[in-house]
Amino acid sequence: MRLDKFLKISRLIKRRSVAKEVADKGRISINDKLAKSSSKVAIGDKLTIVFGNKTLEVNVLALHESTKKEDAASMYEIIQEIDTREKPNFD
Question: Which CDD domains does the annotation name (predicted)?
């Protein structure tokens, strides 16, 4: 399945056009390799997605052509979510 389609169906990103734009700007990697929107996603792949101020790492668990909103989260598991904003140091 194409990366942009997986991101939309799994609801990690709400619109396919936004998923395509994010991937084509080099902000998504599959198994630590830079990915384009047309890259293929397979079960067991690790996706790293850099949003504005957070980085999300997920493991692909399932591929579906379509899902209901409540079933979308079963397509992946979150490995880690990193907040990349600068935190103030009050020491």
Answer: S4
